[in-house]
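Subject: Sanity check before I submit

Could someone independently write out the structure tokens for this chain? I want to compare against mine line by line before I put it in a report. The sequence has 247 residues.
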Amino acid sequence: MAELSDIANEFIRQEIEEYLERPTEIERNIELFARVRPAMQDIAAALIEGEDDVVDRLTQQALADGIEALEIMDDGLIAGMGIVGIKFREAMIFVPEVLACARAMKAGMNYIEPILSDSGVEPIAKVLMGTVKGDLHDIGKNLCIMMLRGSGFEVVDLGVDTSDDDFIDAIEEHQPGIVGMSALLTTTMPNMGKAIEAFIDADVRDDVMVMVGGAPVTQDFADDMGADGYGKDALACVEVAKKLASA
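---
Independent answer below. Compare away.
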């Protein structure tokens, strides 16, 4: 079993030691960062710090050194964003910090995505993502989208205040395997269930798997409205999407 001291990057060691509290997450991240090369740890550290210019430079350098794009994405960018997601979930950082980290991840993905696209790598699945009608919040949704794209999904972003008809039209146009709905307000949560009912009425419900999330949303609520999956945060969103894609 890997130890914290096996991680070369001091900043990453400190992040795990100071901010991760759940034993399973501590163990998983120690195992992850202990096995990846130091250059990937450096990219992850810069991303966690929100240093988009450093991520840009280190990503270019890694590619120039012959490191595969997929390795940079998985072991550097996504690994770093994993810690960001945990810190955001536990209210250790807030929206401005997350936005800075998101810009840093985008700086790296600007180089990675074209390479993966040109290599003919097929996406795991196509996902539609939207914040439901009446809700204008998008930070959580955008973080989920970034994590999904980084994890190999094709994502169509429908934005905020997405009506039932908007979802249905997009389903018919893009033919996704998964639809993700987000809500941050208790007053807009019921619109998730209304959207699912609209999918049934439009005869598209059987064509898609539906996953839901957002701060006030719970597993029980997701079950009651007939969703196929529930993710409590961006990390869980990716795991749920992978599970639904393989169902």
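---
OP: Matches mine. For the report I'm noting this point. The chain is about 60% helix and 10% strand.
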